[in-house]
Specification:
Helix content of chain B: 25-40%
Number of helices of chain A: 24
Structural class of chain A: alpha+beta
Order of helices and strands of chain B: EEEHEEHEHHHEHEHEEH
Shape of chain A: globular
Radius of gyration of chain B: 18 Å
Distance between the termini of chain A: 26 Å
Shape of chain B: globular
Radius of gyration of chain A: 34 Å
Strand content of chain A: 15-25%
CATH topology of chain B: Rossmann fold
Number of strands of chain B: 10
Strand order of the largest sheet of chain B: 6-7-8-3-9-10
Number of strands of chain A: 26
CATH architecture of chain B: 3-Layer(aba) Sandwich
CATH superfamily of chain B: P-loop containing nucleotide triphosphate hydrolases
CATH class of chain B: Alpha Beta
Number of domains of chain B: 1
Oligomer: heterodimer
């Protein structure tokens, strides 16, 4: 039996080519993901252990939330002092203590433009802690110049220096929280920090300067302790722990630290790997259709052969086994090849992602046995699973078929059961999704129901696809016949001939397109909703803000800028109203009116004052409050929240400027997490809006952290990520579509092979080679369009039905059909049809007419 | 070259198809096989001609070459006034579509099309509207009236072959080539098909050339040409099954003596 299976594989290698390719690509995706995940995790672990090299104990400051609020002075306080550092330094076994201060600083580049201000948390700042022995900081090897040693000196990571265009000796402009500062660049250093490689920046100050900027004199965020050889890390950690104050500091051994980091890295990369594996799984699922199709066709072609084997004594079980062995061999060969391609993918992925700014560390490829085994198991498993049904079909071929001399197609099996079951499953799917459409809570359970409904619906439609193929393909045929005459008519008839095969081929394409369309509709709708919501009700021309908080003194300067008509400063604080969490915005109601259009359904902003607030309709509904109610509320963060009695004096429609609730500036400011403005909205005098942003920047010391955004920029900032996300997902789903294309090629090639005699006959009675090519091409296009129409329809329906789940968290959400994209998907399907037909059509056209007519 | 028998039908002076010194060689070097060796033969318009010969004699090759299905090595083949040897694939296809009808031994029909669609297929391909009246005449003649909407799988072998004959006749081609049209049929169905073919010649003025190895089938023709080893060896006018058998016997005897 093994020999028969082997012979079969080799005899049909041309016909198995597309199937092999499909399995191969799926496995390549899986193995590429696994190997890439392992490699990245290892590289991160290496980088982290490089960072931790020589660290025996790390003492970190613990921040009690709200702690710094009790201080009147600016800046944070920590329990790590120079005295503590000295005490630790005096312990036996301690080689050195490296005290560090951590903060953030955003640069203006040499031309004055802020560098990476949107992601300012990636803009690191720390102290250059020169070692007493050699005057160097071992964490940051100097690449040029020297380390900063005075208050007016600064060093940059060489990457940061390159990006900002500064050279040694230049005056560097930057900001840490508000106003712009200037210092002289004295050196550049190299760093392994992934955040810097991912597009962030790194600024180094001398220790006293860093302390002044981010902490207080003589205080640190972390003490890195290295030990002399032969010292036990755990003992040293315990000794240090004894020196620490009861609260506010924590000592961790280097080994523990390495372990923690490794665990975090593993978790982070696992999340990435799992996401990629989902897409790989979809690609493999699509592959199942192609494999099943191929084996069905091979078995149909071989039915006499199988019957003969049965006649000479092979049992059904042996027939099944023979087919499965064939599938195993195919799966194995394809998986090994796929694994090799996967290694290539894994190698190419890092430079590709880094080009996009992912900042992954270098490291050699890590190929684990697990990755290899999983790839093989998945590849072979999927192939055997997909071949199992056709194998059982083969076993049912009666031995007597070997004796039949009439070359007749086996009678089409009844599809009543399949259609009935498919109809029922589709019905359930549609009902679930219609129910989802009525849900609006948007909690996780509802999303699970939506996912479940979508999957059920997809499975139902896959089952129903053969039934649906007749009306839809016939409709397409009406057009092709009119446009292409006999070729179109024949193409349609060919596509209709084997509904199962056409359906399976189209389903493979449908799956990818359903997902792509669904995400596209949801993504576009979300994008539109955000765009609409971002500036809805906002009449201001500019929004002035600093992510870390806009200093009130700076903020107050805005109204004096020439050309500015009105301003409104906003401050925000957490609010707990009857157990519902929201944000309360503090603003002067009179000023607010000039920059935002707020519609009050009851009450008015004029009534807002001490103890009197207005709330949004949504919050009113959630908290069960209405105009005139008085309620005990909590204002402020967790630790320093204060209970207050608030009277609701107004209810307004949702507005982005004042999310949740509105109070006065004075009322909210004390409960804000920092004593700064959240933002200042600016309305320009008429005709003065253009270019006003530069004037505002100038008036506010042009701090690199300062963001002066136009309405377009506000929109862009909020909605910009969605397009990128969609493009990434299209890319990941592209593999599924590619495999589906292979399926189309496969089906067409098999069809051409099966219909050799027909093609010969058609050539004899008057179709020329061009006609034959066109006939095959049209069949391909019809199949692809069938899959596309199903996929686009299904994807749109699912996105529409799930729309309200998003609406719950995004009030302006409405299902918007991205017509341009949908048309593009349809055209892509058309193009896929044409492309997939190239090779099969050429084969068909090249068939020798006389040999074809006489072929058996 | 043409010795037209006075016995049957009107005299035609123009051949519907004609081969002159037609040769067909397959392969090269050691595998070189001469299938046709300078055959010159004409098929008169409005006549039913049978080509006979033992297997490997080149009778099918002659038909393929003259019908524009296969390329000619040397010599010439004409259908009406058209010289086939100079035509490219596209022109040959057009010629077959417009001027030639075919009936093959088996597998004449497309399984996806109904009987009527199969009959009108050459015209559909040519984007020509079928002549309704003529179509009815043909359908009546071959007795398919009630079965036009059936698909081939629902028809018997004989009925399928009748559809093939109807298809060949429907576009009123210059000439119909039939390759062993009764080879797969029982004798009754075979007799019917042969009857239709000869009726089409006598009543509709169609020109038919049929390749066969069956003397009984050949007897339906007006004229039988005999081929052996790629050469034209003999011909017989107004054949009967007996006279054809006699001639065949002669060949065999001659073969044995040489």
């Amino acid at each position: 039996m093994l020999r028969t299976a082997l012979r079969n594989v080799f005899a049909h290698k041309a016909r198995l080519a597309m199937t092999t390719l499909a399995v191969m690509l799926g496995v390549a995706f899986v193995s590429g993901t696994l190997v890439f995940g392992d490699t990245v995790a290892q590289a991160f672990r290496d980088a982290s252990s490089r960072n931790l090299q020589g660290v025996a104990v790390s003492v970190t400051a613990e921040y009690v939330p709200g702690d710094d609020r009790d201080e009147d002075e600016e800046g944070r306080r920590t329990a790590l002092t120079s005295d503590l550092a000295d005490e630790i330094r005096a312990l036996p076994g301690v080689a050195s203590v490296h005290p560090t201060v951590n903060g953030s600083a955003t640069l203006a580049d040499k031309d004055g433009n802020p560098l990476n201000v949107e992601y300012s948390w990636q803009n690191l700042a720390t102290n250059y802690a020169a070692d007493e022995a050699d005057g160097q900081d071992s964490r940051f090897p100097i690449t040029a110049g020297r380390g900063p040693a005075a208050e007016d000196e600064i060093a940059l990571a060489d990457r940061t220096a390159d990006e900002s265009g500064y050279r040694i000796g230049d005056t560097v402009r930057f900001a840490t929280d508000g106003p712009a500062l200037e210092k002289t660049l004295v050196g550049t250093v190299s760093t392994d920090d992934p955040r810097v490689n991912a597009g962030g920046s790194l600024v180094l100050f001398d220790t006293p300067t860093a302390q002044q900027l981010f902490l207080h004199d003589g205080q640190f965020d972390e003490l890195l302790v290295s030990s002399t050889p032969g010292t036990d890390e755990e003992t040293l950690t315990a000794e240090i722990r004894d020196l620490l104050p009861a609260e506010g500091a924590e000592a961790t051994s280097g080994a523990q630290l390495a372990e923690d980091q490794a665990r975090q890295i593993t978790e982070a990369t696992r999340a990435m790997t799992q996401m990629l594996l989902i897409f790989a799984g979809i690609a493999l699922f699509v592959g199942v259709f192609i494999i099943a199709n191929t084996f069905s066709m091979l078995i149909a072609q071989r039915s006499r052969e199988v019957a003969l084997m049965r006649a000479v004594g092979a049992t059904r079980r042996q027939v099944v086994r023979s087919v499965l062995v064939e599938a195993t061999l195919l799966g194995l060969v394809a998986s090994v090849a796929g694994f090799a391609i996967g290694l290539g993918i894994a190698t190419g992925m890092r430079p590709l992602l880094n080009a996009g700014g992912a900042g992954l560390p270098d490291g050699s490829l890590v190929v684990s046995t697990g990755a290899l085994l999983w790839s093989l198991v998945v590849g072979v498993g999927v192939t055997v699973f997909a071949a199992w049904l056709p194998a059982r079909k083969a076993a049912k071929i009666p031995p007597v078929e070997a004796l039949s001399t009439v070359d007749q197609a086996p009678p089409a099996r009844s599809m009543t059961i399949r259609n009935g079951l498919g109809g029922a499953v589709t019905g359930v799917g549609v009902l679930v999704m219609l129910n989802v459409h009525r849900l609006d809570s948007g909690d996780e359970g509802d999303f699970m129901i939506a996912m479940f409904g979508s999957v059920i619906l997809l499975i139902g439609v896959i089952m129903l696809a053969p039934l649906l193929s007749r009306p839809l393909v016939s409709l397409a045929g009406w057009f092709t016949t009119r446009l292409f005459g006999a070729n179109g008519k024949l193409a349609t008839e060919n596509a209709l001939r084997n509904p199962r095969r056409t359906a399976a081929t189209a389903s493979a394409l449908m799956i990818g397109l359903t997902l792509i369309t669904g995400l596209s509709v949801a993504g576009t709708s979300t994008e539109k909703a955000i765009e609409k919501g971002a500036v809805e009700g906002l009449t201001a021309d500019y929004k002035v803000s600093i992510r870390e908080g806009l200093d009130t003194e700076l903020g107050d300067r805005v109204e004096n800028v020439p050309g500015v008509a009105d301003t409104a400063a906003l401050v925000t604080a957490p609010l707990d109203l009857n157990g519902e969490f929201a944000t309360i915005t503090g603003a002067d109601p009179a000023q607010l009116r000039n920059v935002a259009d707020v519609t009050y359904t009851s009450g008015s902003p004029d009534a807002v004052g001490p103890g009197r607030v207005a709330i949004s309709e949504d919050l009113a509904e959630r908290a069960g409050l209405s105009h005139g109610d008085t309620v005990d509320a909590e204002l402020g963060g967790d630790s320093d929240a204060q209970e207050q009695r608030l009277t609701i004096v107004g209810v307004y429609q949702e507005n982005r400027a004042i999310d949740g609730a509105l109070g006065t500036l004075d009322q909210v400011m004390p409960h804000s997490s920092s004593d700064t403005y959240d933002s200042v909205y600016v309305k320009a005098e008429s005709g003065q809006a253009a270019g006003l942003d530069l004037d505002i920047r100038q008036a506010l010391d042009n701090s690199p952290l300062l963001q002066v955004q136009t309405r377009e920029e506000i929109t862009q900032e909020e909605a910009g990520g969605i397009a990128d996300l969609l493009n990434m997902i299209y890319g990941l789903l592209g593999m599924s579509v590619l495999i589906a294309v292979l399926g189309v090629v496969n089906t067409l090639a098999m069809s051409v092979f099966e219909r050799t005699r027909e093609i010969g006959l058609l050539r004899a009675i008057g179709l020329d080679r061009t006609d034959i090519r066109q006939m095959v091409r049209l069949e391909s296009v019809v199949i692809c369009l069938f899959g596309a129409v199903l996929g686009i329809g299904l994807g749109t329906f699912i996105a529409w039905a799930s729309g309200n789940l998003t609406k719950s968290s995004l009030a302006t959400y409405e299902t918007v059909l991205p017509w341009v994209s949908l048309r593009l998907f349809l055209l892509t399907a058309l193009a896929i049809g044409v492309l997939a037909a190239i090779w099969p059509a050429r084969r068909a056209a090249r068939l020798n007419m006389l040999q074809s007519i006489n072929a058996q | 070259m043409y010795r037209h028998p006075a016995a049957t039908g009107p005299v035609h002076t123009v051949a519907a198809a004609e081969a002159t010194q037609l040769s067909k060689v397959y392969g090269e070097g050691e595998t070189r096989v001469v299938a046709l060796d300078g055959v010159s033969v004409g098929f008169a318009r409005g006549r039913f001609t049978a080509i006979m010969g033992p297997s490997g004699s080149g009778k099918s090759t002659l038909m393929h070459c003259m019908a524009g299905l296969d390329a000619i090595t040397t010599g010439s083949a004409r259908i009406g006034d058209t010289e086939l040897s100079t035509l490219g694939d596209r022109q040959l296809t057009k010629l077959r579509r417009e001027s030639v009808g075919f009936v093959f031994q088996a597998f004449n029909l497309l399984p996806t099309l109904t009987a009527l669609e199969n009959i009108t297929l050459p015209m559909t391909i040519a984007r020509r509207r079928p002549d309704r009246q003529w179509l009815d005449t043909i359908v009546d003649t071959v007795g398919l009236s009630g079965r036009l909407s059936h698909r081939p799988a629902q028809l018997s072998g004989g009925q399928q072959q009748r559809v093939a004959v109807a298809r060949a006749l429907a576009s009123r081609p210059e000439i119909i080539f039939a390759d062993e049209p009764t080879g797969n049929l029982d004798s009754r169905s075979g007799a019917e098909i042969l009857g239709f073919l000869s009726d089409s010649v006598r009543e509709l003025g169609q020109t038919v050339v049929m390749v066969t190895h069956d003397p009984v089938a050949a007897a339906y023709a007006d004229r039988v040409v005999f081929l052996s080893d790629g050469r034209l060896t003999d011909e017989l006018l107004g054949p009967t099954a007996e006279s054809v058998l006699d001639r065949m016997g002669l060949f065999k005897a001659k073969d044995r003596t040489t």
